Amino acid sequence: MADVIRRDPRIERIARNRLHPQHAAVTAVGDVRGPTGLLRKNPHAVGFIGPNGIKRIDRSTKGSANVLMRRTGQQAATQTLELPLHTVETPDYLIAVVVDLAAGRLSGHDKDVLGQAHQLMAELDGQGAILAIAFGESRDVDFGAAGADRVLHLSDYTGYCPEQKLAVLEAIEAEHVIRFWLFPDSVQGGADLGRRLSARLDIRAATHAWQVDANTTLCRGGRDRIDWQRSTPRLILLAEECAMPISDSRHEARPIAVPVIESRLTLIEDLGPVDVDPSQIALGEAEFIVSAGNGVRDWDQFHEVARALGATEGASRVAVDDGNMPRFRQVGATGTWVTARVYIAVGISGAIQHLQGIGQCDKVIAINMDPGCDMVKRADLSVIGDSQAILAELLNLLGADEQASLAATEARHVA
Ligand SMILES: Cc1cc2nc3c(=O)[nH]c(=O)nc-3n(C[C@H](O)[C@H](O)[C@H](O)COP(=O)(O)OP(=O)(O)OC[C@H]3O[C@@H](n4cnc5c(N)ncnc54)[C@H](O)[C@@H]3O)c2cc1C
User: Fold this and answer.
1) What atom in ligand 1 is closest to the CA of residue 373?
2) Which of 27, 62, 80 is the last residue of a domain?
3) What is the residue range of 19's domain?
4) Ligand 1 cavity residues, CB under 6 Å
5) Whole-prediction pTM
6) Whole-angstrom Cα distance, residue 383 to residue 117?
7) Atom of ligand 1 at shortest distance to CA of 367?
8) How confident is the model at residue 316 (pLDDT cuts 50, 70, 90)?
9) What is the spatial distance between Cα 203 and Cα 139, in angstroms, rounded to a whole number?
10) How remote is the CA of residue 199 from the centroid of ligand 1, in Å?
11) Residue 1, in any domain of the structure
12) Which residue from 40, 159, 287, 362 puts its CA 20 to 30 A from 339's CA?
């Protein structure tokens, strides 16, 4: 009896009526049960309508395909959707994707490149598999969900060590049949490593490629004003959004053996990261931005929070026009387009011109009084309330944290 499918006519009625107040909540589950009882994918549930009326795909984790949100009244329960598992026993060839794994996570760019690898594989004969190669520590990365059939993860390759990484890639090239080498063309590592490998393998790589099939590749250059077409080489450095990430299948991410690496003379020594003043980092390059809008009440407090967090300051146009922030801090269509991994918007409403500038940010946190504003809709996490009170609490927490770590250091010294 447990597997008898029970239909709910009320839910079905709400799902058909786009004007019903609960329509969005009901269809947000992504799949709808059809009249025959079959589960059907609802294409309208993919993405969301942005403030300018254009449909956008949400790449934050809350929109990922394997998390299903069902909302009933005030309650929200999370349930994992089992996507079909794709397995390849003995692949004829591999497509190698060397991911950046910046800060231990797969970036949107990494996932786009894995998506591109699948597109290429669909065009090739024989049975292939996608090999994800990652260096450095990872934080709960699900390579299988991102589309990797095989994984080589070398967590002890930390810091800047391109010669050692290159030796691993060369060993893989020697041990496996690699049909394509794909890298994100990014400053996080892919651009450098990809070019080094292309020189070593003597392949004229395609760089900043954004439209790729097995025969032809379109690359962008000339400050993004020129496209040129060429035949697809075996080594490709890909631009962001070259392909859609994998969202409708799971891959087994089976680890492969670490290749045998010849010992090699290393000429580069990494002396570790250099402390930089966050206020000196150009907005376009900043990884962590705290940005102020018209909802900031205490400007000294805002600057103190930015300092305590070690974040680079940004601003909305209103904050700049009112003289509270310098012009070069403006984020948005007529300011700087930022690519921060974390963007905290304090008292910013989320006008379309501002949202355009933060389109590439990974995680957005909104601090705002208005739960219905567009910034809160865009954000991955929102704190609703008065900015002054919230920033004061944040400063308290940061102060408490600092004291605790000082006490711990002192205790270690005494011991
Ligand atoms: C051609 C053109 C180009 C533009 N380019 C840009 C651009 O590049 N960048 C840009 O940012 N804008 C740009 N704008 C302006 C844009 O349209 C908005 O006017 C601007 O972004 C709004 O700034 P804001 O969100 O800080 O202010 P507001 O729209 O006034 O929003 C203030 C927000 O703060 C919240 N708030 C108020 N009090 C508090 C409190 N005490 N605590 C917490 N929250 C509070 C409010 O709920 C509101 O959401 C442009 C406009 C035009 C016409």
Assistant:
1) 49
2) 80
3) 9-80
4) 293-295, 297, 316-319, 330-335, 347-349, 351, 353-354, 357, 367-370, 373, 386-387
5) 0.64
6) 38
7) 43
8) very high
9) 33
10) 48
11) no
12) 159
pLDDT at 67: 37
Alpha carbon distance 116, 124 (integer Å): 13
Check whether 154 has a pLDDT greater than 90.
yes
Give the model's pLDDT for residue 37: 53
pLDDT for position 140: 79
Q: What is the pLDDT of residue 12?
A: 76
* Separation of CA 352 and ligand 1 centre (Å): 9
Query: How much distance in Å is there from the Cα of 374 to the middle of ligand 1?
Result: 10
114 shares a domain with 76: no
Q: What is the DSSP letter of 330?
A: B
Rama region for 350: left / alpha / beta (φ>0; ψ in -120 to 50; rest): left
Domain membership flag for residue 272: no
Helix axes 162-175, 190-201, angle to 10 degrees: 50
pLDDT band of 203, cuts 50, 70, 90: very high
322-372 pLDDT, tens digit per residue, is 999 999 999 999 999 998 989 999 999 999 999 999 988 989 999 999 999
Domain count, the chain: 3
Query: CA-CA distance, 184 to 191, in Å (whole number)?
Result: 7
> 351 alpha carbon to ligand 1 midpoint, in Å?
6
> Domain check: are 242 and 100 in the same one?
yes
